[in-house]
Specification:
Elements (H helix, E strand, L loop, with lengths): L31 H10 L3 H13 L3 H12 L2 E2 H8 L3 H13 L3 E6 L2 E6 L2 H14 L2
Antiparallel strand pairs: 1-3, 2-3
Helix pairs in contact: 4-5
Length: about 140
């Protein structure tokens, strides 16, 4: 919801509307052509589930901070922990979740594993998300 003083999104103060307050049609009229179009173009339930799981990975501020750090540079757990003022254990736990979601990868360099964004799609999602909240 927009904060009218700053013009920015403020999800922490989002108002929950009762069903009676939600805008709806004054008259029920089903547009069969639109319903059919939506139905024909809807991804499979499996794809929708996977998409929801992907967005869950973005639903934690610690994981977002890690992704932003990786947006800037390939980095090891030690450096991530220092950069984000967190423990290596906490960083490792979140990296495991990000890796399972296909958002980050790691490569071994000697005794360290260097983490990086999995591909340009992740970079695009982060950039577009930032652009959206800054509108």
């Amino acid at each position: 919801m927009k904060n009218y003083k700053t013009g920015k999104q403020d999800m922490g103060k989002m108002r929950i509307y009762a069903a009676a307050e939600a805008p709806c049609c004054d008259e029920k009229e089903v547009h069969e052509d639109r319903v059919r179009f939506v139905h024909e173009n809807m991804p499979s339930e499996d794809d929708l589930y996977d998409l929801a799981e992907l967005f869950k990975a973005f639903g934690d501020s610690t994981r977002i901070r890690i992704l932003f750090a990786l947006f800037e540079a390939d980095i090891c757990v030690c450096d991530l922990a220092e950069s984000l003022n967190m423990t290596q254990s906490a960083i490792s736990h979140q990296l495991r979740l990000l890796k399972q979601a296909g958002l980050v990868n790691g490569r071994r360099e000697g005794k360290q594993i260097i983490y990086y964004l999995a591909d340009e799609h992740v970079r695009t999602i982060i950039s577009m998300g930032l652009e959206h909240i800054n509108e």
